[in-house]
Amino acid sequence: MNSINKQTITKMGLYLIMAVIVIVMVVPFVWMLSTSLKSQEYILQTTPQLIPDPVTAESYVQLAERIEIFRIFFNSAFVAVMTTLGQILVSAMAAFAFARMEWRGRDTVFLLYLATMMVPAVVLVIPQFILVRSLGWINTYAGLIVPTLFSAFGTFLLRQSFLSLPKDFEEAAFVDGANRFTIFWRIILPLSQPALATLAIFSFMGSWNAYLWPLFAARRPEVMTLPVALGVLQSGPRALTEWNIVMAGAVVTVIPILLVYLLAQRWFVGGITAGGLKA
Amino acid sequence: MAGISKIRNWGWVLFFLAPSLLGLLIFIVYPITSSFWVAFHEWNLLSPPEFVGLANFQELWTDADFWRALRYTLLFIVMYVPSVFVLGLALALLLNTKITGISFVRTATFLPVVASWVVVSLIWKWIFNPAYGLVNYGLAGIGIEGPAWLFSPTTAMYAIVITSIWKDVGYIALLYLGGLQSISEIYYEAAEIDGAGQWQKLKNITLPLLTPTMFFVLITLLINYFQMFEQIWLMPMPNSSADRQLEVIVTEVVKNAFSYNRMGYASAMSWVLFAIIFVITFAQLKLQDRWVYYELD
Q1: Is the pTM of the predicted complex or chain greater than 0.90?
Q2: What is the ipTM of this complex?
Q3: Does A208 touch chain B (CB under 8 A)?
Q4: Out of A100, A246, B21, B255, which residue is the most buried by the measure of CB atoms under 10 Å away?
Q5: What is the pLDDT of residues B182-198, one digit of tens each?
Q6: Which structural domains are found in chain B, ordered by start?
């Protein structure tokens, strides 16, 4: 066998593997969508139909009857947007103080930030619940948003980026009489857009997908977010047979984040791997 | 003059730092310290906390539910971590080739990473449905009668391991990919001059130079999976033996805190989990000299 043939065979093998991977990754999502477009009697068939026939949106209508889906969707979107904006502002300001200013005790305070990153979420969830409860913030937007704003990780990420900018820019601005805030807002932030985008994606996805904290901080429909509502929906007494409705809820929950991902893919990759590999 | 500019400098430091630092102290540092305090108390949130010394930790030692949760956590890790460690590496090696259409594969493997654990749990709960799910339909096609996956603890565990690999393999591959792309081409060129084949290049260049990434991946996997929660909370079928028996440490903490209102006991358990994670991470840092190869610049 000559080497050209060998190469062709290797290539065909690779394409076969690639096809299998894509199918394994995509079919569960297709199955979710397909189930959500069937009516009750068609999902309970021992020979599953991958392409629904007939296609119907009745699961979505039933979903809206079962839970306050519009309100819940709004809650998720509102909480995710506020969390993202808040985290970016708070983290960027702190990162500016750590990266672009000289002050005594700076490195010690930064060590405190790093230390808090080690503590697992489950250690925090109980005392945060007790604290938020004593503030009267259970079942409020404040309770969902405020405790998640102070991420040491965001400060850490932006500090790294701010440190990489040359000193000359702000020295020139200083000579022109600019104050610290102008330098922060007009020079450092615009130059750090990739890092800001990375953090934005990271916080938005974290908030949109969050489950553990909202599960206990917001159980009422007025403030409930999508993942919690989905959990409630699938644990109901009829859930064993209502997979079309549960999958409709899953579609509504997953489509926005998948769209954001497909549109902003490269920031996602940065956002998700940002936690590591700096060494 | 110098004094004024010093004060002005501190003013700006406070302006930039205060929102973050105050928030961190109130919503992170204070809860952590108060949780440590609560761990030595009996507290149901209704009556005032009562100091009990080490009683919560002593109770943990003899609590069969806690040991079962710890055992299941370890079992999950033993099945899941090596699988995703190897599959993630294989996927990364594939993604690192320049073959046409590979970006499509990367996008596809990343879809489950972006989706929430709740959505992924529910999709797979439906796929593992014994009567109408895709998995048992596929198994029936090759003449195997599939089990009632999410109804009994052992099969539910397998189903959850498979789901977890599906969700995370793209993420792990991406971590590896970063490491692969930082390996200099020079090594490969030199090896080719010496007549090294693909396998030799993988064994003698890629894998040794990838050990720092592997080390990071292993630490990340262990830290994350000692804290696994959503899939265990959501996937077992309600009222089945899987639902009653399949618990991991975090679900046990959550149940004690929010179902039984035992804040002190649950806090103690969460600190034990932290201690376990800390010791394991520390041990890995100590053991890394044995197998992690750092390039000298």
Answers
A1: yes
A2: 0.92
A3: yes
A4: A246
A5: 888 888 888 888 888 88
A6: 57-290 (1.10.3720.10)
